[in-house]
Amino acid sequence: MDKPVNQGAWLLVLPVLLIVAFSAIVPLMTVVNYSVQDTFGNNQFFWNGIGWYQELLDPSTDLGGRFFDALWRNLLFSFLILAIEVPLGIAVALSMPREGWRVAATLVILALPLLIPWNVVGTIWQIFAREDIGLLGWVVNHLGIPYNYTADPLSAWVTIVVMDVWHWTSLVALLCYAGLRSIPDAFYQAARIDGASRWAIFRNIQLPKMHRVLLIAVLLRFMDSFMIYTEPFVVTGGGPGNSTTFVSIDLVKLALGQFDLGKAAALSIVYNLVILAVCWVFYTVMTRMDSGRN
Amino acid sequence: MARIDLQNLGHSYTPNPKGPDDYALKPMTHVWEQGGAYALLGPSGCGKTTLLNIISGLLTPSEGRVLFDGKDVTTLPTEARNIAQVFQFPVVYDTMTVYENLAFPLRNRGLRGAAVDARVKEIAGLLDLTPDLNRRGRGLTADAKQKISLGRGLVRPDVAAILFDEPLTVIDPHLKWELRSKLKALHRALDLTMIYVTHDQTEALTFADKVVVMHDGRVVQIGRPDELFARPAHVFVGHFIGSPGMNVLPAEVAGRAARVGGHVIPLGRGYPPLNGGEKIEIGVRPEFATLAPAGAGGVPVRVKRVDDLGRVRIAKVELSGLPMAATVPEALNVVGEDASLMFDPAMVHVYVNGSLVEGEAA
Q1: What is the pTM of this model?
Q2: For residue B133, which of B157, B107, B112, B151 has the smallest C-alpha distance?
């Protein structure tokens, strides 16, 4: 049966199209435009074709080498963040109270780190972790563990990872908690009747019910950690050496430090595509797992 | 398989109950025989589920004891009692197959291999789940899921009792009948004590050997369905069971007669003069109050309306201004408002403050 098609409906989509065009597509096209040109002072532009992309994707060049180093750092960082924050967030959600005034108290405390602006988090940790006057740095050093994030790459990494865990585990925990709260009491009662162990309850009731929120949590935490900029910029400035220079930090150095707008534009586009690709893989794998259960 | 004793069992959700109003379950003593099929019947909020959860151990009673075969299990957790419970809404472990779902309670208790397999297949066969055994729990219909929940309750061979908490609420009406008769058949086949909570009288009366009627945290009557119908122990039972419910009329009772608004209704038993300070009522089911033409010798009434219920016709009448329901015999043609009402004296019961008073037989 043919349904009449109302072409007038397109008008309803028009405002969104316009807003998206001006806020996303047009700026993106500007970046694409930059990425195929070489820029000099006085607004002089020269056509460079796909030259920047070739250089960027070839690790043997200076630009490519920088890019791949930073990219591996990013991937390692995101991997560590997910490997720590997801299990920790689940554990926190599982141990949260289920009723009474403690629920509100816990929620407020968990939400606090999420409300602090990124650069403030960076500043807090920059001071907190200093080995001379910072509470954390001073204590760790006096326990006999050498720790100095301005001189030692490992210390710098530990600082940034711990800082991110402190900042964002709450998000995973809150999402998981929402998933847990949607499980009716009857499931727990039935599990007790069935004699299920604590692990069996987690494996067969809680984890499947958290599956969807976990997908969202993993995607959000991956995207956010992969795009991380402000906190390491404030705490370590990308150092010591280049040890905490992530792609975003490198990008800013390239664009605002060296005014290599062409290279920077090409880098942002590749960076963007990498994030999109990884998110797509995550999403497909996790929804595939979901439907594979049927 | 066990006999269940409730001794002075009571429960209050408030820490220091003062009056009877603070109790969700008022202290009671009852014995539930091994192998019986009991239905716990009552309106929402009458304490049915509280009682059920106490028996299964999901709730620890604030007073009294629960005994299984004479053994005190009051403070034992659910896992340590041999009890199975099926809930109102289906609980299915989504990630497991139907087979694994049914095997779950057995495997959790350390059973393995052939013992599990035989039992799971037997129960799946009884519940018509055999074709679905290898499917995942997710995506099944609500009644298939509820069958799995029932199956997990039935699969354990050693249970003292199986408790059902309104298990057929989410099931389609035509499947309700089927599942209920299936449960009944399982009860006969497996010789288990079954306790079935419901607020649906049809469900209770068709399922149970004994119906336990609860009202306001109290058990008001335990009896066979016919006893509940013929001799309600409390006006509440009269109202709640039967459709329409029992007629309850304020009356004065002396000897073998009750007086309602100046009319005399004969009683099947003799009563001592009852204290006028208490609330005295007579109760008679519409089935035992039959309409007759005016002047036929019964109590004169005014007919307000006649409802044809298919099998019977029920007349709404007024006896001295008090509304009642009565049966209209097939042969009778009701013309006009005036009629008379004939009572079956043996089926007219006397209630003092709501509770049945036994008269002296003739």
Answers
A1: 0.73
A2: B151
